[in-house]
Amino acid sequence: MRVPVSLIPHQQPRPATFALALLLLPVVIGLPIAVWFDLRSPSARMMQGEASEIGLLIDEMRAYYANEVLGRLEGHGREAPMPTALSIELGKRISARDGAVKIRIFSDFPFRKRPGHPIDAFEQTALERLRQDATKPVVDVSGTLVDRTVRVATPIVMGPACVACHNSHPDSPKQNWRVGDVRGVQEVTVRRPIEASIFSFKALLAYIAVVAACGLAFIRMQSRQAALVRHMNGELAQANAFLGSVSAKIARYLSPQVYRSIFSGAKDVAITAERKKLTIVFSDIKDFTALTERLQPEDLTALLNEYFTEMSVIALRHGATIDKFVGDAMLLFFGDPDTRGVREDAAAAVRMALDMQAELARLNAEWRKRGLAEPLEVRMGINTGYCHVGNFGSDNRMDYTIIGAEANLAARLQAVAQPGSIIISYETYALVRDIVEADALPPITVKGISRPVVPYVVRRLAEVPEAGVIHGQAQGLDLFLDVTALDAGSAGETRRLLEQALTALDTRAGQERPRAM
């Protein structure tokens, strides 16, 4: 029997705090990543707004140049670069700087003496879309995890001065421009690494760093605690195995009911007793001393152990508390530490005694095959009354047992019983009279009991038919017949054998009668 689970700490493969640490790990790692991804969108929007503002500045500068500067220069008869050419040169200068802003002005209708503009897919798409709707800038956002690039394309719309100039210029590839036509595209490109925006959030970054450090420290601490708990659980498992082996050995010295009540905490291991009404059973083997002289010690030990083993199985099946083995005798009682009521305890005691007698008949048949000449016969006494039950002894060594005159009476009833019979007191008979058939014997006087005692010899249970187990031994006879175990085929064969035995006995009796005369 193992130590009760309630006495051993529960072994947990991982503490709850360690599971919490595992949940915190992705939170700690995911927070800066989430911030990183969230900053990509506002960074792109800010870059787009910045590109649009730059484009508007270029447009305003070109308009001012065309309307204010260029007109005044022409009035004085001076030549000046065209607004578009000025914008192109300005964009080249800005783009030549190693900065984050690039400006490019291009058209798919360049002047003949000017080099053509290489146009990529975005720029071609921007030309087509702006000529369809010049009011909506074309925007493209691209980049990687570490940087973002925003391209904003706005239209270069032909004004009256531009139309007059382009339609009359000899190098113009197109002579039918109208006011409002899209001559080309002004593209502003802004490229900026994400960290440039992230490092502006210094307080947030400091907070993330502190949270990450605390989280990692917590995870490390929980990892150490988990390792410590696993080590402690390993030691507890070893202690549990050791206690289990020890308890299994102790269980062999105690009745299971007593063992369970002690290890569950229902009873304390202290010198104490209480008065209870019990049914006591005392059994003893007839002529055991003579049997010890006939058998070798090894054979006697094996026979006695087999007898006690089978009787103990029956006792535990009926709920008896095995008090002790005294030589060849057994002391058992019902009613403590577990009880089903005084009447049921008494009935269980009588049923147990009858089952023990039937089992002894089977054992005798087995032992006779092994060479035991004389069968074992057991006397049994049963009494019901008040006894003191509990721990008796000293602080260093105690025994869980019963004391009292009623326990002594069960032993006296066993002493007056015939071999193979069960004697019960009137107190027990009054409780079981409805389930047993018993015959009253003459009253007897028992030492230690002031009143006359009326013993009853138990025949059988009232609900069990008389034809049950038939057993007996004599010179030349070894009979064990369990009628309830026979089926139709074996019953016929048994009848044939018994009739054959009766015929042989009649023949033997007929042969011996003349010699007797």
TrEMBL record:
The record's section on SMART domains has: CYCc
- What keywords would UniProt list here? Membrane, Transmembrane, Transmembrane helix
MF-aspect GO terms? adenylate cyclase activity
Q: Which protein, by its recorded name, is this?
A: Class 3 adenylate cyclase
List, alphabetically, the PROSITE patterns matched: GUANYLATE_CYCLASE_2
Q: Which InterPro entries match?
A: A/G_cyclase (IPR001054), Adenylyl/Guanylyl_Cyclase_3/4 (IPR050697), Nucleotide_cyclase (IPR029787), Tll0287-like_dom (IPR021796)
A Gene Ontology biological process in which this protein takes part is: cAMP biosynthetic process
Tell me where in this chain the Guanylate cyclase domain is found. Answer: 279-414
Q: Which residues cross the membrane?
A: 16-37, 199-219
